[in-house]
Structures are given as structure tokens and as C-alpha cells.
Design brief:
Shape: rod-shaped
Order of helices and strands: HH
Distance between the termini: 113 Å
Strand content: under 5%
Structural class: mainly alpha
Helix content: over 70%
Radius of gyration: 34 Å
Number of strands: 0
């Protein structure tokens, strides 16, 4: 027969369940903070103006067109 106190097995079970509860709380906290970070990242990503990207692409396109035009002019003038 055991006495009025907890047995070693009961103590270990309580310690393990306490650790499990702590880990679950930490996991919930981490999950919530990552969700917030994802939302902030998505919001800031949507805030990037697309016009700037289009303008940059258009600028590169115009540069390439000018380069081709200069090359053709060079060929016409000097490679006859």
C-alpha cells in the first residue's frame, strides 16, 4: 500500500503533462505570430506599385529598341 503522497509515476506523469501543456502554449503563440507576419508580408507585398515594374520593363524595352535601331543604322552606313 502506498502512502498519502504522490507516487513517482504520478509525479513523472504530472511533470510530462505540464511540459506538454507548455509546449502547446508556445506552439499556439508561435503559430499566431507567424500568421501575423504572413499577413503583414502579404499586405506590404500588395503595396508595391506595379506601375514602377511596368515602367522599368518598358524602359528596358525602349533601350533594346534603340540599341537595335543604332545597330541597323551602323550597318547601313558603314557596312555597304
Amino acid at each position: 500500500m502506498s502512502g498519502a503522497g504522490e507516487t513517482q509515476l504520478e509525479i513523472e506523469r504530472r511533470i510530462i503533462s505540464d511540459k506538454e501543456a507548455k509546449i502547446r502554449r508556445e506552439l499556439l503563440t508561435e503559430t499566431a505570430s507567424r500568421k501575423q507576419l504572413r499577413q503583414r508580408r502579404k499586405a506590404s507585398h500588395n503595396a508595391v506599385p506595379t506601375v514602377a515594374l511596368v515602367f522599368f520593363s518598358l524602359k528596358l524595352f525602349v533601350f533594346n529598341v534603340k540599341k537595335d535601331w543604332l545597330y541597323k543604322c551602323w550597318k547601313i552606313c558603314f557596312d555597304e
